[in-house]
Specification:
It is a single chain. The protein contains eleven helices and no strands. It folds into two domains: about 50 residues, Homeodomain-like (Arc Repressor Mutant, subunit A); about 150 residues, Tetracycline Repressor, domain 2, CATH 1.10.357. About 80% of the residues lie in helices and about 0% in strands. It is mainly α.
């Protein structure tokens, strides 16, 4: 029975860490705060985790791996590039809609942090950017997207726009009703992908 309960305890501690890190900020949070939130003894936390740093690393890696897997699956499909980029945007926005505390921790404490966490996870973060760049590159090769824009630049714009949306929701500076999430998905794709689609010949010449 104890063996079956161990994964549940570990998960409960990680879930508590999400709540505490989102509420207090990672640097202000203490292991004792996580233990209290999880309803476990302080020493039990150290049975599963060496530090709160390890908890943050695992929380990030778990969620980011899901993003990578979803992006790889989207890229491998037969949909046009517009729909593929929409699929990636949908995954990220839905992740925030359903797990806002976890996404707040990831955005504020890892991906936007100019500290050891951000540097440690740079390869994972870059892989997500690379997959979007590859979707753009595929679309350029098929003639569905204009070929005069660097795919890596397009990926930075794509993720920059989505990160700003998430930041607005995190700090409650923009509305976050269900309709706002749906509208955001549509506008991100309309704004970015419309700019990536081939222009009429007359516009290209004028430009």
């Amino acid at each position: 029975m104890a063996e079956a309960a161990a994964p549940d305890k570990r998960r409960a501690i990680l879930d508590a860490a999400i709540t505490v890190f989102a509420r207090q900020g990672f640097h202000s949070a203490r292991v004792s705060d996580v233990a209290a939130e999880a309803g476990v003894a302080y020493g039990l936390v150290y049975h599963y985790f060496d530090s709160k740093d390890q908890m943050l690393n695992e929380l990030f890696s778990e969620r980011w791996e899901l993003l990578i897997e979803a992006s790889q699956e989207v890229r491998a499909g037969d949909a046009p590039p517009r729909d593929k980029l929409g699929g990636v945007a949908n995954f990220i926005i839905e992740s925030y809609r359903h797990e806002p505390e976890l996404m707040k921790v990831i955005i504020v404490e890892v991906t936007r942090a100019a500290n050891s966490f951000g540097r440690t996870h740079l390869p994972e973060i870059r892989r997500a950017y690379d997959l979007v760049a590859e979707i753009v590159s595929d679309g350029q090769a098929s003639g569905e997207l204009r070929d005069d824009i660097d795919p890596n630049f397009a990926a930075m714009v794509f993720y920059g726009a989505i990160e700003q949306l998430l930041t607005g929701w995190i700090f409650e500076s923009i509305p976050s009703a269900d309709s706002d999430y749906e509208r955001a998905k549509r506008l991100v794709i309309e704004t970015i992908v419309d700019g990536l689609e081939p222009r009429p010949v007359s516009d290209a010449i004028a430009g």
